[in-house]
Write a structure and sequence with these properties.
The complex is a heterodimer. Chain A folds into two domains: 76 residues, Rna Polymerase Sigma Factor, Chain: A; 86 residues, Winged helix-like DNA-binding domain superfamily/Winged helix DNA-binding domain (Arc Repressor Mutant, subunit A), CATH 1.10.10. Chain A has eight helices and no strands. In chain A, α1 packs antiparallel against α3 and α6 packs across α8. The longest helix of chain A is centred in the middle third of the chain and has 31 residues. Chain A is flat. Chain B is an alpha+beta fold. Chain B has three domains: 59 residues, no CATH class; 124 residues, Sandwich (Jelly Rolls); 71 residues, Phage tail protein beta-alpha-beta fold, CATH 3.55.50.30. In chain B, the strands form three sheets. In chain B, strands 1, 2, 3, 4, 5, 6, 7, 8, 9, 10, 11, 12 and 13 form a 13-stranded mixed sheet that branches. A three-stranded mixed sheet of chain B has the order 15-18-17, covered by helices on one side. In chain B, strands 14-16 form a two-stranded antiparallel ribbon. Classes of the chains: A mainly alpha, B alpha+beta. Chains A and B meet through α2, α4, α5, α6 and α7 of A and α1, α2, α3 and α4 of B.
Chain lengths: 195, 320
């Protein structure tokens, strides 16, 4: 096997790295609340994913793998929670429509109209600067550094604005989950993505 | 939400924000934080959920945006004209955000020149109390340098010296003190911070603060102290009433190295204090009243330390 990194397709390098990092990655998944079995599953899924996805050269491959797994862990938990919620609904004899399975996963979820309205209302209460920074970050997709540079404020000030905005978003989320659409559920947090 | 929940959520948001930044590379730190308490992962999940719940109406989390942030032209006179703003899917959230932003024009003129930091220094032996717009009071000991921000009374950076902070608490906008690459975030608080070239000492008299450096995040409650020298962080305790006692003209010590005592005396009186090398390991416990003229204080210190304190051209010399 040649050791010329450049000749090697990016994928196989990544695959090798993912194998070498397995213990570390498994530990991360466990910390992210995955069971032993789920962690194994996800690592396998990761391996396949990087084998079948074409990427350009990756500057920080280690971080890239963590990032993918982080998203996968999140998606898996959401899927699991939705499944449990559906089961709970069945037990509570309250049927979902046939299209329940077609509910989008959170990565592509269209926020419900109600929630969006609540977000709007809550963000309108934020200090103007905070709302502006949040918009630049979350809507326009600028990096914190770019925002700090442009506004001539410190990175930590940008972070503070975003902290505040996200807290507001969390508050809305909590309220929605508590007064959500699924009265039978004890855990809450399943009312999203239902139109 | 309880205070600790608040803290955990703040941390979760901070991690979420950092994780989505381009070039984030502190996964080990993130894992340590997750492993510290199962509640951390739940809080992080809640934040991710909330963010994902904003949906695709908003742009994906930032990672590739290297183009400059573009402002509405009206906001600042010297802004470049909007250079081909990046096309994003227009959505309700964006439209909403634009509305929110437009409301702001009146009060945001000159936003581009917002960096309004300024420096306050005290001479050796000079103390000074600053009152910030939010009700926070900062007592500066001698030989102290601090940066403040006219626009943001919740920010301070201690460059050197010692200061006691009595912080007006606002959970939504915590007071943040930066010292080099360390951060101290108040949780409703009176605390004292001393920066020497080698170390940082934080003592909490009331309430609590959060201490953060690259590796460590730690909560200090009333009576807790922390001394950080390089990567070495040592926790301890101290009677809360003794903390920042220099503001009342007293120095209170419990087993403090004489080097520290000498440094404090120098700062308080604006004199040079030399310590004989063979005394470097000695410690002192007790209270030193700072009032009186130079000779009175010198004799008092000599008695308390049971050492010789002699005058030099620019201060004192302490020896056996």
């Amino acid at each position: 096997m040649t050791s010329h990194g450049q000749d090697m397709p990016a994928q196989s390098g990544l695959q090798q790295l993912s194998l070498a990092m397995r213990p570390e990655l498994r530990r991360f998944l466990r910390a992210r609340g995955c069971s032993e079995a789920d962690a194994e599953d996800l690592l396998q899924e990761l391996f396949i994913k990087i084998a079948t996805t074409t990427t350009g050269p990756i500057r920080t491959p280690k971080a890239y793998l963590f990032q993918i797994l982080n998203n996968m862990a999140h998606t898996r938990r959401r899927t699991e929670m939705r499944r449990q919620a559906r089961d709970a609904e069945w037990i509570g004899e309250r049927r979902f429509g046939d299209d329940a399975d077609a509910a989008p996963d959170p990565e592509t979820a269209l926020a419900g109209r109600d929630e969006l309205e609540r977000v709007e209302a809550q963000l309108a209460d934020l200090p103007e600067r905070t709302a502006f920074v949040f918009r630049q970050y979350r809507v326009e997709g600028h990096s914190q550094k770019a925002i700090a540079l442009e506004l001539g404020i410190s990175l930590s000030a940008v972070e503070k604005h975003l902290q505040r905005a996200y807290k507001a978003v969390l508050v809305i989320r909590n309220r929605q989950e508590q007064g959500g659409l699924a009265p039978a559920s004890s855990k809450g947090g399943i009312g999203d993505a239902v139109d | 939400m309880r205070l600790t929940d608040d803290l955990v959520h703040e941390q979760a948001i901070a991690w979420h924000l950092r994780l989505t930044e381009d070039g984030f590379d502190e996964w080990d730190g993130f894992v340590s934080w997750l492993e510290a308490d199962a509640a951390h992962n739940s809080a992080y999940e809640a934040v991710s959920d909330a963010d994902a719940g904003l949906g695709e109406l908003a742009a994906p989390a930032p990672s590739v945006a290297t183009h400059p942030v573009s402002w509405p032209a009206a906001w600042s006179a010297n802004d470049e004209p909007d250079s081909a703003p990046v096309q994003r899917r227009p959505g309700r959230l964006m439209a909403m955000a634009a509305t929110v932003a437009l409301v702001a024009i009146g009060s945001w003129v000159g936003f581009g020149a917002m960096n309004q930091t300024y420096e306050v220094r005290t001479a050796p032996g000079e103390t000074r109390t600053l009152a910030l717009a939010d009700g926070t009071r900062i007592a500066l000991n001698g030989s102290t340098e601090i940066m403040l921000d006219r626009q943001d009374p919740r920010f301070a950076e201690l460059k050197s010296g010692e200061a006691k902070f009595s912080v007006h608490h606002d959970a939504a906008d915590p007071f943040e003190l930066t010292v080099a690459d360390q951060k101290i975030v108040d949780v409703g608080t009176v605390f004292n911070v001393k920066k020497s070239p080698q170390s940082l000492k934080v003592e909490v008299a009331e309430g609590a603060v959060r201490y953060e450096d690259g590796q460590v995040r730690m909560r200090l409650d009333a009576g807790d102290t922390l001394q950080a020298s390089g990567a070495n962080v040592v926790e301890g305790t101290c009677p809360p009433e003794a903390i920042g006692s220099w503001t009342n003209g007293r120095l209170v010590y419990e087993g403090a190295p004489l080097v520290e005592v000498a440094g404090d005396l120098a700062r308080a009186r604006g004199i040079a204090v030399e310590l004989a090398p063979n005394l470097a390991q000695e410690t002192f416990s007790g209270v030193i009243q700072l009032d009186g003229d130079g000779d009175t204080l010198r004799q008092r210190v000599a008695q308390l330390l049971r050492l010789k304190v002699s005058k030099t051209s620019d201060g004192w010399s302490i020896s056996r």
